[in-house]
Structures are given as C-alpha cells and as structure tokens.
Amino acid sequence: MKKMNIKIFSFLSVLILIGIWLLLTLSGWVKPLFLPGPKELYEVITTSYKDVFMHMGYTLIRQLGGFVIGSLAGIIVGLLIASNRYIEAFMDPIIEILRPIPPLAIIPLLILWLGIGALPQMLLVVFGCFVIVIVSTVEAVRNVPRIYINAARTLGANSFSVYRTIVLPAIIPSLVGAIRVAAGASFGLVVAAEFMGAQEGIGYYMIIAQRYLRTDMILLSIIIISALAWLTDQAIRILERRLTRWSERHS
Amino acid sequence: MNKLEIHGLSKVFQSQMGPVTALENIHFDVKEGEFISIVGTSGCGKSTLLNIISGLESHTTGEILLDQIPVQGPGSDRAVVFQSDATFPWLTVYENIEYGLKVKKIDPKQRKQIVEELLSLLELDKFSSAYPKELSGGMRKRIDIGRAYAVQPEILLMDEPFGALDIVTREMMQDELLRIWSERKKTVIFITHDLEEAMYLSDRIILLSPRPGRIKEVIPIDFPRPRSGQLRESQEFYQLRNQLRHIMGQ
C-alpha cells in the first residue's frame, strides 16, 4: 500500500510538469518561438520525422562506436595497469594528465587535426568514455577484498587463475556502474561535438534549427536524444541485474 | 609419523618504531590426523603463525616441514578456513566448493562426485544453486569448510573460523566440524582465543604467550571421542578450563 502511494507521487510530478507545459503554451503566455506547444510539436513530428531520424542515425553510429571502443579500451588498459606494477608506474602519470581534461575542451584540437568529419566526433566520445572507465577499472581491481585472493591462493590458484577467477568477476559490479556513467556521458559528448563542427547528425540538425528559429525542431531533437539515452540506461540496468544477481545490492 | 614439523620459527616485522618480534622460537610437531589448537590472547601472533604455515606470510628464521618437505608459498596442500566470510559471492554454493578442483583442473566427472559427496556431508545439497548472500553466517562457514575439504589438503588450517558467529551458531558449528572431521579424518591446526572451543575440539592445545609470541605450554586433551554437548557442562571440562585459564593469565 505504502509503495503504491509513493508511486502515485512520482506519477503526479510528471503530470504536473506536462500540465505546466500545456498551460504555458496553450494559453498563449509563452510564444511558440520560445516553447512550442502540443500542436507545433505534432506538426514538426509529421513533417520532419524523416530528417530527424536520418540525423539521429548518424549520431547514434558515432555515439555507439565511440562508447564501445572507449569503454573496451578503458577496461583492457585498466586491467593491464592493475595487473602489473611496472605498467602501473608507467601509465599512472599519463592517466593523471588525461583525467582532469574536460573532454569538451579538446574539441577545437580534434577539429584542427581531423576536420569536421565523423572521426573527430567519435574520437571525442572514445576519449570521454575511456577516461571514465579506465579510472573505475583500476580502482575496482584495487578494491577487490584481499580475503578472496588469499582464499583462492590457498586453494591452489596461481596468479593468472586468481586474476581470471577472482579479480575479473569481483569487479563486474563496479565495471557495469562505470559503463553506465560512460553511456550517459557519450550522448552529451556526441551532440556537443556535432555542435562544434559536423555536416550531419542530430547536433548539426539542432544548430541549423536554431539558425532558422525552429524551436519545434530543437525540442523534438531533445526529446528523441533523451529518450535514447534513457533507453540505453535501462538496457544497461537490465544487464547489470543479470550480471550481478549475486551481489548484496540486489537482495 | 609427523605430518607437520616446525623448527625454530621466528618472525620479525619491520615497523616504524623499529623491528618487532611477533613470533620467537616456535617449535612443535603435528601428528597425522591430529586436531591441534593454538590458543592465545589477541595480538599474540597466532594468526601470523597460521599465515606463515599457509604460506601467505614469510617467516624470518626456522623451517616448516610438511611430510618432511619445506613449504614454500601458498598451496592447496594447506587449505585455509578464514575468520571472515571468504565464500566467493559470485559463485553458487556448488561452484564455491568446486572452485579449488576447477583451478587444479580435476576432470569434471571426478569433480562432480567430490562436490556432491561434500554437499551431502555438509547438508548443503538443498542449497547447491543458491548464492552465499542468500545464506546465514553458519551456512557460509560450511561452504568455506567444504571448499577447503574439496581440494583434499594434507593439513587443514583454520583461523578462528567461528569467531564471527553468535554463541549458539558457534557451538553448533563446533559439533558440525567434529562430525565432519570424524567422517573424514584430517590433520587440523585450529586457531582460536576461546579456551573452551579449543578444549572441546582438540587432541592437543598449544598456548601462546604474547609479545613476542612464544609457546607457553602444550596441553594434551584426553576427553574421549566422540564428544558431545554434555562434555561442555561436565565437571572435568570445567576444572580443566579453570586450570588453563590460570596458566594463560600468568
């Protein structure tokens, strides 16, 4: 009963938000130029959905490519660093230099070096995801409880077996957490990269829409990209629950 | 026949205040199939001693012979049951017990047989596909014991295995351990700070005195086996406990 009541509150907040939007737009208090109403939104969906989906497609390829490459590289390099003290000593300064760089700050450099094609945009996502995932991976390996490693060794596991059978499964919950953060960031990064210089993609579409004062197109773009980001997050959460059924968090 | 021999063992730590002697001139033998307890107050070095025997820690002088061969590093011939929960949470009960056998690449058929036998010996068969988080502390301890038994160690090392359990569960686990041990004879070194636990379980008790850890006294425990809960309430048990308590406090 109590759980039900709490759900009603969450539902209520969404209703109120939509209500405010309807009130502001339908009453004419806010002009469609600044905030399109339901009618304008419906029109833009019917007239430009083809364009929006095409641009969205370009964006998704870059986002997904960058996210997968960046996260995988982060996990692999992170595991390498955490497996060997010499690699760690060598890589640590590099990571410490890269870590504080706001990914958006390297957009001008990427454009200067690589122009405004798809490659620099994807690289930006790769960079952002890589930094997030590598830091979490190294941290996760360091936090594997000593007791598991000792237990494995006294049961006959050598260092390689310990790494494969203890360290890897033990870090999965933290890794999935980092991947979720990286997925969220990747959407922001790819759109930002397209703002700065692109010839297609949802970010480019939004910049053009802004130039022609097409707030309806901008709003539609925001809704679509948010929905995609949300769906991706949900998918990773389902994966997380699958992979970490054993973890205390889901009891 | 001595299963384990320890000769002139010492351990010196380098701390910020200079060298600290944790163990000094430790010398004892453990016979095949013997259940021996090492008892001492907190900080007397008993866990350090066990970690040295298991190979997880190094020692400064002396030697440890298992079947006349010096031990080097950790290995499944000296499996350990730790005080804190060491069951692997990402593996089911079955997979936990199977762990050491898989690492040792025992063939699957034989593996299955060993694990299933242990599951029924430990009365865990009903929970074989459960994850440790779904089980109580006492049950998880059984998994730890089963996992150590599975690799068929020459000697079983137990580091205050029941220290984190409540008194009722602890006594139940002591009975369980005796039952398992009587069915599958193993040489056991059991670390505890609980005199009664040591008396109830062991053939012999080694009392350690703290700072530096030295052997104070070795006491044979002659209560007949099989032992049961009644022993804990008997007059002889009580008297021996007081006597040992006295030696320990000196």
UniProtKB/TrEMBL annotation, chain A:
One of the protein's GO biological processes: transmembrane transport
CDD domains the record matches: TM_PBP2
Gene3D superfamilies for the chain: MetI-like (1.10.3720.10)
Record keyword Transport present: yes
Protein name: Taurine transport system permease protein
Protein keywords: Cell membrane, Membrane, Transmembrane, Transmembrane helix, Transport
Cellular component terms (Gene Ontology): plasma membrane
SUPFAM superfamilies listed in its UniProt record: MetI-like
Organism field: Seinonella peptonophila
Matches recorded under PROSITE patterns: ABC_TM1 (PS50928)
Residue ranges of the TM segments: 60-82, 94-116, 122-141, 162-192, 212-232
Family statement drawn from the similarity comment of this UniProt entry: Belongs to the binding-protein-dependent transport system permease family.
Membrane-topology descriptor: Multi-pass membrane protein
Sequence ranges assigned to domain ABC transmembrane type-1 in this UniProt record: 56-236
Localization per Swiss-Prot or TrEMBL: Cell membrane
Matching InterPro entries: MetI-like, MetI-like_sf
From TrEMBL, chain B:
Domain of life of the source: Bacteria
Record SUPFAM superfamilies: P-loop containing nucleoside triphosphate hydrolases
Residues covered by the ABC transporter domain: 4-235
Protein name: NitT/TauT family transport system ATP-binding protein
Keywords, ordered alphabetically: ATP-binding, Nucleotide-binding, Transport
An MF annotation (GO) of this entry: ATP binding
Alphabetized CDD domains for the sequence: ABC_NrtD_SsuB_transporters
InterPro entries named in the record: AAA+_ATPase (IPR003593), ABC_transporter-like_ATP-bd (IPR003439), ABC_transporter-like_CS (IPR017871), ABC_transporter_ATP-bind (IPR050166), P-loop_NTPase (IPR027417)
Record carries keyword Protein biosynthesis: no
SMART domains linked to this entry: AAA
